[in-house]
């Protein structure tokens, strides 16, 4: 290698060394900690986790072509927008027609239903939220059964949230139902923060079904649920 080539190689090496050398601030030596990459939390944080019940292969209750999973998602999306517009951060656990069990690669169970439920519960551990509101539609063999029903944990904060939600929904329906403890429900038993299941109405009731499938009523239901959540947050802090 001739002298000119050696000088060029030396200059290139010096430039590379300067480019990758630790930089000191204000003439003082840089500490190793200052060069350590900082990673912020990748998962979202919010006040409310909105659980849109069912999805994908699991249609939930149905009446002909009317499927519970579709009603749940439509109201959930509206609720998300209402809460965000009121300055209440919210997270929606599904935004389309798919089963959450498909995202569960950590639960060894062969049961799709168990993987679905454990995925919903697992999100409350992974995402920093204050409460869980699970939206569903009810069904009964009795056509006379109608109106909203809120199920809660056997715990004070959950019961308070359920009371506010039930009152707001009763006002929309003109009903006088009381919330109930939902002892056999997986989510209510295993979620470690205040959680409720909101049955928005009975798909088996002709009167309720007309409301549940009406976009204007879906908006009213979303606003009622948001009002209950807002009242709870104001009260419980």
TrEMBL record:
Q: Which CDD domains match?
A: MurNAc-LAA (cd02696)
Recorded hits in SUPFAM superfamilies, A to Z, give: Zn-dependent exopeptidases
- What biological processes does GO assign it? peptidoglycan catabolic process
* The MurNAc-LAA domain, residue ranges: 129-230
What InterPro entries does the record tag this protein with?
A: MurNAc-LAA_cat, N-acetylmuramoyl_amidase_3
- Record-level GO cellular component terms: outer membrane-bounded periplasmic space
**A Pfam family hit:** Amidase_3
| Signal peptide bounds | 1-24
Keywords assigned by UniProt, alphabetized: Hydrolase, Signal
List, alphabetically, the Gene3D superfamilies matched. Answer: Zn-dependent exopeptidases
Which GO molecular function terms does the record list?
N-acetylmuramoyl-L-alanine amidase activity
Query: PANTHER family, per this entry?
Result: N-ACETYLMURAMOYL-L-ALANINE AMIDASE, N-ACETYLMURAMOYL-L-ALANINE AMIDASE AMIC
Q: What is this protein called?
A: N-acetylmuramoyl-L-alanine amidase
- The scientific name of the source species is Thermobacillus composti (strain DSM 18247 / JCM 13945 / KWC4)
């Amino acid at each position: 290698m001739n002298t000119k080539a050696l000088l060029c190689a030396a200059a290139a090496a010096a430039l590379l060394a300067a480019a990758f050398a630790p930089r000191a601030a204000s003439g003082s030596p840089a500490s190793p900690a200052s060069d350590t990459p900082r990673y912020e939390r990748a998962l979202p944080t919010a006040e409310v986790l909105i659980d849109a019940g069912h999805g994908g292969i699991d249609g939930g209750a149905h009446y002909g072509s009317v499927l519970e999973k579709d009603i749940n998602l439509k109201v959930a999306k509206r609720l998300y927008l209402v809460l965000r517009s009121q300055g209440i951060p919210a997270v929606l656990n599904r935004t389309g027609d798919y089963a959450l069990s498909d995202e569960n690669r950590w639960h060894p169970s062969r049961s799709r239903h168990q993987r679905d439920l454990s995925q919903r519960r697992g999100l409350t551990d992974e995402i920093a939220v204050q409460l869980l509101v699970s939206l569903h539609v009810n069904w009964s063999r009795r056509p006379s059964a109608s109106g909203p029903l809120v199920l809660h944990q056997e715990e004070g904060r959950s019961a308070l949230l359920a009371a506010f939600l039930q009152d707001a929904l009763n006002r929309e329906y003109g009903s006088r139902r009381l919330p109930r403890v939902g002892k056999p429900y997986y989510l209510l038993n295993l979620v470690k923060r205040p959680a409720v299941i909101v049955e928005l109405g009975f798909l088996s009731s002709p009167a309720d079904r007309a409301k549940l499938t009406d976009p204007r009523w879906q908006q009213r239901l979303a606003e009622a649920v948001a009002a209950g959540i807002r009242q709870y947050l104001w009260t419980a802090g």
